[in-house]
Amino acid sequence: EAEETNMKENGKLNISGNTRTVLERRYLRKALDGTLQETPEGLFRRVATHIAEAEGFYEDGLDPSAVADAFYGVMTDFRFLPNSPTLMNAGNELGQLAACFVLPVDDSLDGIFDAVKNAALIHKSGGGTGFSFSRLRAKDCRVGSTGGVASGPVSFMKIFNTATEQVKQGGTRRGANMAILRVDHPDVLEFIQCKSDNEALNNFNISVGVTDAFMQAVREGGDYDLIDPRNGETRGSLNAREVYETLIHQAWFNGDPGIIFLDRINRDNPTPALGEIESTNPCGEQPLLPMEACNLGSINLSKCVVTDGGKARIDFDSLKEIVWLAVRFLDDTIEMSRYPLDEIDQMVKGNRKIGLGVMGFADLLYMMGVPYNSDEAVGLAEKVMGFVQTEAHEASRHLAVSRGPFPNIGKSVFKGDENRAYRNATCTTIAPTGTLSILAGCSSGIEPVFALSYVRRVMDGDELLEVNPLFETMAKERGFYSKALMARIAETGTIAHMEEIPEDVRRVFVTAHDVSPEWHVRMQAAFQNHTDNAVSKTVNLPREATADDVQSIYDMAFDLCCKGVTIYRDGSKQNQVLSVAEKK
Ligand code: UDP
């Protein structure tokens, strides 16, 4: 197999391995009988040309064909990739290019079934949907028009789940949903337990939306009020610490629910006059107003490392260039995308949110010889993301000079602030990059490498055995590479315990489970400090971690100003997407 995948040879893409598999299975245009109708070059050309058309909409827009060439270049170098719906749908019939949506769920049958229908349309186009179910009246409340009783948020979630199951996103990918319920909703305890059967609600991630007041009640050991969403009246109270402990126990048990900090999210809401943020998209990285959507894109940091005289460093000049081009790409994408509903079109074009983020951060650390679980790595995270954030804001402000600021700026926190007259209400988001990172052949998002050698189960149970390419190259250079060794590493994924491997290598080439939960949270917080939206991150815990361990993670995430936290204790879900090879 080719040592270096995805290298360009004489201008032609040389794509192999997992990149090709994923492109063929999911992205390349296919005829009805399944034959491929597009090459990888054709895909990136289609996307680049389509997005660059937006340049022609502006009086002083750039030359669309020159911009298309630049977009093509940065994508085929795998330095920057837009979210999957853009790759799949740009220039195609669907034309829907955003990954993230939040839909309102109003407290009426009309409202609920409108949301089900709208979610189905979004899933068909490859987008994911988040909902707050907090507005629905509680279970057993009276239904005025019939004299019957309401069945409550959790029972309605099952309808969304079934609809999602049937749509399967037009054969490209299964719809993903987020359900949020406020901690002061009367049904909160039922919600916390609703995924304890692993198969129920399998198309949902769930998170409890907690408030600062709740967190304070937890610390003081007091009670807090449950609120009837229909009229704001108090409907009983619960002990905050008991609810917190129930939530934590459930998360310990099987990863769900996560937790989001609603007040922290709303402190960063750029347009509070347009409404409160009640939910995020499915993986938690994108808080949005109801009926808002956002398109994401990710820069591959592993391509921003250069070596001078044997010493690796970050090439900030080239990073800056990519950030500016990516902001232009994502802003152009808003114009070119077709949104499934007029209301969404209006919201998106009013706020023009984009979410530029990074992937390949763990690779960057390997290349620079910095352990993920170190102050130096946290410092690098602050430095790199701070740079991306500053440059993204500058690029957005620059676009606003010729294209105008986002139309709702007069209703935003940036009103009258010349230094923040942005084209986009938000610029940065750290996405999980689940598929993009496979395409780019880099580590996903800001996560540590899961295993140095492992089986990746993707798409309908396919299994691909992988050795981390940076580790493989280094092992060969240092002379300890062997196939047998790589197979042995695949049993656990980590080399922490392998004394035959040099100590300095074991210190740098750490994997998700070698990194203690505290370092996971510190890293998430470091990126959050420099991200307008939120950060997708899973805090990995070993199988033997206790509920107290989970609690200290939640407390720490709150104290370090994260916008939410998701934990995963090894082995606690049956269908783990990533797993180290089973011992044979
Ligand atoms: N998403 C989805 N279904 C999927 C994977 C992702 O709807 O199977 C949406 C969801 O909103 C998620 C976002 O896409 O939060 C970004 O996910 P990721 O970065 O993993 O997507 P990629 O662009 O790599 O496919």
Characterise this structure.
- The chain is 40% helix and 17% strand.
- It is α/β, with parallel strands linked by helices and 584 residues long.
- It has three domains: 7-96 and 283-420, Anaerobic Ribonucleotide-triphosphate Reductase Large Chain (Alpha-Beta Barrel), CATH 3.20.70; 100-280, Anaerobic Ribonucleotide-triphosphate Reductase Large Chain, CATH 3.20.70; 451-511, no CATH class.
- Strands 3, 4, 5, 6, 7, 10, 13, 16, 19 and 20 form a ten-stranded mixed sheet that branches. Strands 18-17-21 form a three-stranded antiparallel sheet.
- A hairpin with a 3-residue loop joins β17 (453-458) and β18 (462-467).
- α5 packs parallel to α6 and α11 crosses α14.
- The protein is globular and about 75 Å long.
- It starts with 6 loop residues before the first strand and ends in a 5-residue tail after the last strand.
- The model is unreliable at 1-5 and 575-584 (pLDDT under 50).
- The structure holds uridine-5'-diphosphate.
- Residues 83-84, 99-100, 127-128, 173-174, 176, 281-283, 285, 431-436 line the site of uridine-5'-diphosphate.
